[in-house]
């Protein structure tokens, strides 16, 4: 094996995913055969996801990224009623294929992480408790709001938010304790197979529409601070978090320019220049989009732009020092913390 040309996981990710699934189907035909050809295609897709998360955990030297992902997968597999042996078999087959197909010395970190994962998965939970526990401010409102969205009643969801605003509840509290927590709960419900993808998308779109109804209030404050550009890197479609950050800073008096999901690096760089921005807020939810964040930061540093960079999103919440590894100036886990970090970075 030592004389093999070195290939990274990403170099051969499609063929590796196919081989992993081939081995799984050979070892566990009784589990996989009932799912047919469409099930096999989904298995290959999932094996590719596993490899992407594994690759990024290795590339960033952040094993937490892969371990937290496996915890998510374990809950998902349990909700789909897969036997406990499926996840273990998946990891074992992945390790077997990588050891056989890739240069062992160069890919030893991946093999080590898979070994660590195999030792850890039995301790990972198979269920997730509700995020809306009743112990946080506005939890009753959050529950009613969630119920309305799940029933497809966007009008009632909007009305109950506007009523709270009229009663003097701060918009920031609505964002933190209702919108943010409900979005997390919707993600949990999809993960445990309680709602469909269509419902998840509807709830997110409805929340974005209701947020936009608050903009006459949010954008009413006098602008007296610096300019911010907020974006999600190319391919990233989870945009509510970045929108919340922009709105919080707008309420703090910043001049914000939010360019949304799936923003190419070239578009972000041009917007920074056009807006003469002093702070860039970049959000990423899917770990396999981290290379795009790294690429963007590298471009900004190469061009020596006079701007500070703040990052946020799921991967950064899992690995506490990841933001430093990719060269950002700061990190915030949510919109409230983003306001504080932004002030610190520019003052």
Structure at a glance:
This protein has 347 residues and is α/β, with parallel strands linked by helices.
Would you count the extended β strands for me? 5
Structural class per helix/strand content? alpha/beta
Under CATH, the topology of the largest domain is which? Rossmann fold
Beta strand %: 5-15%
- Work out the helix count: 17
Q: Let me know the largest β-sheet.
A: 5 strands, parallel
CATH hierarchy class name of the largest domain = Alpha Beta
Low-confidence stretches: 1-5
**Percent helix:** 55-70%
Using the 3D structure, state the CATH architecture of the largest domain.
3-Layer(aba) Sandwich
Give the name of the CATH superfamily of the largest domain.
Answer: Cobalamin-binding domain
What's the gyration radius in Å? 22 Å
Q: Rough shape?
A: globular
Nearest-integer average pLDDT:
93
Query: What is the element string, with H for helices and E for strands?
Result: HHHHHHHHHHHEHEHEHEHHEH
């Amino acid at each position: 094996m030592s004389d093999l040309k070195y290939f990274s996981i990403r170099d051969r990710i499609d063929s590796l995913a196919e081989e992993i699934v081939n081995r799984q189907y050979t070892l566990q035909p009784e589990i996989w055969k009932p799912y047919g050809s469409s099930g096999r295609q989904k298995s290959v897709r999932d094996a590719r996801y596993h490899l992407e998360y594994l690759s990024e955990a290795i590339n960033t030297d952040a094993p937490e990224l892969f371990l937290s992902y496996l915890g998510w997968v374990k809950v998902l597999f349990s909700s789909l009623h897969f036997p406990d042996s499926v996840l273990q078999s998946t990891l074992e087959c992945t390790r077997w294929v990588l050891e056989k197909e890739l240069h062992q010395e160069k890919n030893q970190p991946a093999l080590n992480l898979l070994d660590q994962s195999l030792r850890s998965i039995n301790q990972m939970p198979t269920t997730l408790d509700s995020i809306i526990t009743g112990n946080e401010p506005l939890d009753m409102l959050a529950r009613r709001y969630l119920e309305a969205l799940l029933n497809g009643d966007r009008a009632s969801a909007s009305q109950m938010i506007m009523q709270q605003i009229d009663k003097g509840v701060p918009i920031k509290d609505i964002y933190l304790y209702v919108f943010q927590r409900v979005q997390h709960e919707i993600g949990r419900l999809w993960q445990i197979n309680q709602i469909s993808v269509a419902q998840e998308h509807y709830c997110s779109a409805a929340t974005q529409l209701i947020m936009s109804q608050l903009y006459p209030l949010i954008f009413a404050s006098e602008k007296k601070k610096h300019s911010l550009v907020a974006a999600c890197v190319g391919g990233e479609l989870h945009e509510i978090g970045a929108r919340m950050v922009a709105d919080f800073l707008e309420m703090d008096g910043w001049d914000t320019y939010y360019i949304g999901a799936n923003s190419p690096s070239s578009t972000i760089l041009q917007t920074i220049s056009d807006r003469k921005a002093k702070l860039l807020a970049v959000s990423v939810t899917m770990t396999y989009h981290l290379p795009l964040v790294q690429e963007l930061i590298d471009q900004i540093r190469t061009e020596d732009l006079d701007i500070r960079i703040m990052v946020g999103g799921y991967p950064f919440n899992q690995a506490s020092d990841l933001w430093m590894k990719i060269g950002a100036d700061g990190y915030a886990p949510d919109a409230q913390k983003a306001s504080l970090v932004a002030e610190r970075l520019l003052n």
